[in-house]
């Protein structure tokens, strides 16, 4: 999750698509250039350990966006599921 958050901050579409499960991966990604990412807060994880092939990350991604009078802050909160084919393969974002 942390590496995908960093990829969003850097607008690294290639990395995001490469680490997205093919069953749910979009053809392309669009970024909102007005957002300024402020930080990632991991709230909870379920499974996702070395011996697992499924996991969930509950997180909050903090960001700012421009308004007519300056900037306003908001949070994107999500529970993301990750999967991998075997314990020696890479984790992929599922949904």
Automatic annotation (TrEMBL):
Location of region: Disordered: 76-95
Domain YchJ-like middle NTF2-like span(s) in chain numbering: 1-95
Superkingdom, taxonomy of origin: Bacteria
Biased composition regions of type Basic and acidic residues, renumbered to the chain: 76-87
Xref: Pfam families: YchJ_M-like (PF17775)
Protein name, per record: YchJ-like middle NTF2-like domain-containing protein
Species the sequence originates in: Gleimia coleocanis DSM 15436
């Amino acid at each position: 999750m942390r590496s995908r958050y960093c990829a969003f901050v850097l607008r690294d579409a290639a990395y995001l698509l490469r680490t997205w499960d093919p069953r749910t991966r979009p053809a392309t990604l669009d970024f909102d250039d007005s957002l300024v990412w402020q930080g990632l807060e991991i709230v909870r994880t379920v499974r996702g350990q070395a011996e697992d092939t499924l996991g969930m990350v509950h997180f909050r991604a903090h960001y700012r966006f421009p308004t007519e009078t300056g900037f306003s802050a908001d949070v994107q909160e999500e529970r993301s599921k990750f999967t991998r084919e075997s314990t020696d393969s890479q984790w992929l974002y599922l949904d």
